[in-house]
Amino acid sequence: MRTRQKRSLHFDGALFADPAWDMLLAVALAEIEQRRVSITDLCYAAVVPATTALRWIASMTGEGVLVRRPDAFDRRRVYIELSYAASLSMKFYLDDIRSDCAPTTPTT
Question: How far is residue 51's CA from residue 43's CA, in Å, rounded to a whole number?
Fold first, then answer.
């Protein structure tokens, strides 16, 4: 997520706009850090107008990528989580790119 944010310092953000991916990364990071993500938090993470973020959340929920979980203490609040399948896919993806980014030792 930091590299995506740094990228916007060097390039026009609209050029690389991808709110669905930004939201997916935010929810995956929250899962790794064992935090909950509210819909409001996710709208901020997407760095797009709230209406656009809400459309993406609805779409990704409909596709089974995200899951809505109501707050047990405040019925007005809803948390967003990765579905089980999306969580596994993200873990496999991160493992895959981690191996691509690992430094290679030169052979002599």
Answer: 9
